[in-house]
TrEMBL record:
Pfam families: Sulfotransfer_3. SUPFAM superfamilies: P-loop containing nucleoside triphosphate hydrolases. GO terms for molecular function: protein-tyrosine sulfotransferase activity. The keyword Aminoacyl-tRNA synthetase does not apply. It comes from the Bacteria. InterPro entries: P-loop_NTPase (IPR027417), TPST-like (IPR026634). PANTHER family: PROTEIN-TYROSINE SULFOTRANSFERASE, PROTEIN-TYROSINE SULFOTRANSFERASE 2. Keywords: Transferase. This is Sulfotransferase.
Length: 286
């Protein structure tokens, strides 16, 4: 664990179905930044273990709880390796253990990387925990037109049970939290539009790379090819991330115009109008 890492982890945040997974794959193709698949152990275990462990005898129980968090098993890390890495730590503080887990994934999967990151929509609502653990963390908040994000939610198996109203309320909650962080901490959080990322990807990615102090690479535009080869999105999750196996596609922009009826558009804009306008999306029915 003597590798020289940069000091500020990177967190990709944003509402569900806003392009967070695509951005994660793009940035992971930089060869300098390693962002593992989605899992929420960082914030899920915080309330129980925020004070860290008192002794090495507690490590097995901690690791058992770690592997109980959904999706973490899809990182395919050997629990014995994590145990070994924990024993190398100077202290078993929660921050040290969390960083150790991410770095272990990096060392196993991206040994040339010098920086680790995380991608998870729910962390948009939990940035207070992240900043408590990593005060120097940097955030990329990706924003997508709420009408398209809601439409995309309802096209997934897990989103079909959500009403238009519920899906819209969730989008408003997430995007408002991301906007607030960017306004309060502009030196640590930048915002990028999904629409900009797919229409002018080189420009958008260079802007993000400059903020993160990593090198832009054309490999970022071929994230889908690497995903096909290496299953960067775990096979178990590819059903609802099928587009990450394809190249950048601008046809996903403003699909709501053809896919939603006027009543649905009006319902979304009634709930999300202020948030849409705050993020420079023009309303159609209000």
């Amino acid at each position: 664990m003597n590798k020289n890492f940069t000091s500020a982890p990177v967190f990709v945040i944003g509402a569900e179905r806003s392009g967070t997974t695509m951005l994660r794959l793009m940035l992971s193709s930089s060869k300098e930044l390693c962002i593992p698949p989605e899992s929420i152990f960082l914030t899920e275990l915080y309330s129980k273990y925020r004070q860290g462990l008192d002794s090495i005898e507690q490590i097995p129980e901690f690791i058992s709880n770690l592997y109980s968090i959904f999706f973490f098993d899809q990182w395919h890390l050997d629990p014995n390796l994590i145990h070994h890495r924990f024993l190398e730590l100077e202290s078993l503080s929660y921050q040290n253990m969390m960083e150790c887990i991410y770095r272990t994934y990096l060392i196993v999967n991206e040994p040339d990387s010098i920086q680790w990151g995380d991608k998870n929509p729910i962390h948009t609502l939990r940035t207070n925990i992240i900043l408590d653990l990593f005060p120097n963390a940097r955030f990329i908040h990706i924003v997508r037109d709420g009408r398209d994000a809601v439409l995309s939610q309802r096209e997934t198996n897990w989103g079909k049970t959500r009403s238009i109203e519920k899906a819209t309320q969730l989008w408003v909650r997430y995007v408002t939290a991301g906007n607030l962080l960017a306004n309060q901490r502009p030196e640590q959080c930048i915002q990028i539009k999904y629409e900009q990322l797919v229409s002018t990807p080189v420009e958008a990615l260079k802007y993000i790379c400059n903020f993160l102090d990593i090198t832009y690479s054309e490999n970022m535009l071929e994230f889908h090819l690497r995903n096909r080869r290496e299953n960067l999105v775990p096979i178990e999750q590819q059903d609802y991330h099928k587009l990450t196996l394809e190249s950048i596609d601008t046809s996903r922009v403003e699909r709501w115009r053809d896919k939603l009826d006027i009543e649905e558009i009006s319902s979304i804009e009634l709930i999300a109008g202020e948030a849409l306008e705050r993020n420079s999306y023009k309303l159609e029915t209000i």
